[in-house]
Design goal:
The complex is a heterodimer of chains A (113) and B (108). Chain A has 113 residues and is mainly beta. Chain A is built from no helices and 11 strands. In chain A, strands 2, 4, 5, 6, 9, 10 and 11 form a 7-stranded mixed β-sheet that branches. In chain A, strands 1-3-8-7 form a 4-stranded antiparallel β-sheet, with no helix packed on it. In chain B, strands 2, 5, 6, 9, 10 and 11 form a 6-stranded mixed β-sheet that branches. Chain B has a 3-stranded antiparallel β-sheet with strand order 3-8-7, with no helix packed on it. Chain B has a two-stranded antiparallel ribbon with strand order 1-4. The chains are: A mainly beta (113), B mainly beta (108). Chains A and B meet through strand 5, strand 9 and strand 10 of A and strand 6, strand 9 and strand 10 of B.
C-alpha cells in the first residue's frame, strides 16, 4: 500500500544531543510537511517542502531544520533538543496544490531526558 | 487571526444517540475546511472535506459561513466511531491550521 512511513516510532535523546527523525513516502507527492504535536494540542506546522523548495513557518525555532534529498525522503533535524521539544512529530504529504488533503505518517514520539 | 476552535475536548454519547462535534473558525478569506480522524493506534486520516459535500461513515458536515462553523454530525453514533476528531482549515497554499481536537467516546 502507498503510504507515509516514519522512523523510528519512538526516539529518546538527551538534552542538547542532536537528533534526526526520518520520513519516507511511496505516494510520489510533491509536498512533504513536518508537524509538532504536544499533548492535548493541535498539530503545529513547522515547515514544508514543495519539491525542493523549503518553506519555514515564521515561528519555527532555528533549532529545527529539515532536509529533503529526494522526492521520497524528508528528515527533521533538531540541533540541540530541549525539554520543551518533547512531542509527537508528524510527517505528512500532499499532492501538488491540494494542500488541504494530507496523508499522515504514524508519528515519532520524541522524549528528551 | 486565523484560528480553528473545537470547544469540547471530550464528548461522550451512548450508542445510537446523535452526535455533533463543534468546530468554529476564524479566517477572512474563502475557507476550505476538513475533518480528520485518528482511531486508536492509527494515523491521522482525512474523514471529509466541505467542498465534496459527501457523507463518510454516516458523518456529514456543513459549512456555515454566517456562523463560521463546520460542525460534524452523525444521527446514530456507533462504538467504532470512538476516536479523536480534528477540524482543519486550509488557508491556501500549503498552510493548514488544525484545531486541538475532540475525543469522542461512544458508550455501549
Amino acid at each position: 500500500d502507498a503510504m507515509v512511513i516514519q522512523n523510528p516510532r519512538y526516539q529518546v535523546t538527551q538534552f542538547g544531543k542532536p537528533v534526526t527523525l526520518s520520513c519516507s513516502q511511496t505516494l510520489n507527492h510533491n509536498v512533504m510537511y513536518w508537524y509538532q504535536q504536544k499533548s492535548s494540542q493541535a498539530p503545529k506546522l513547522l515547515f514544508h517542502y514543495y519539491d525542493k523548495d523549503f518553506n519555514n513557518e515564521a515561528d519555527t525555532p532555528d533549532n529545527f531544520q529539515s532536509r529533503r534529498p529526494n522526492t521520497s525522503f524528508c528528515f527533521l533535524d533538531i540541533r540541540s533538543p530541549g525539554l520543551g521539544d518533547a512531542a509527537m512529530y508528524l510527517c505528512a504529504t500532499s499532492r501538488g496544490m491540494e494542500g488541504g488533503e494530507q496523508y499522515f505518517g504514524p508519528g515519532t514520539r520524541l522524549t528528551v531526558t | 487571526a486565523q484560528r480553528v476552535t473545537q470547544p469540547e475536548k471530550l464528548l461522550s454519547v451512548f450508542k445510537g444517540a446523535p452526535v455533533e462535534l463543534k468546530c468554529n473558525y476564524s479566517y477572512s478569506g474563502s475557507p476550505e475546511l476538513f475533518w480528520y480522524v485518528q482511531y486508536s493506534r492509527q494515523r491521522l486520516q482525512l474523514l471529509l472535506r466541505h467542498i465534496s459535500r459527501e457523507s463518510i461513515k454516516g458523518f456529514t458536515a456543513d459549512l456555515n459561513k454566517g456562523e463560521t462553523s463546520f460542525h460534524l454530525k452523525k444521527p446514530f453514533a456507533q462504538e467504532e466511531d470512538s476516536a479523536m476528531y480534528y477540524c482543519a482549515l486550509h488557508t491556501g497554499g500549503f498552510k493548514t491550521i488544525f484545531g486541538a481536537g475532540t475525543r469522542l467516546f461512544v458508550k455501549a
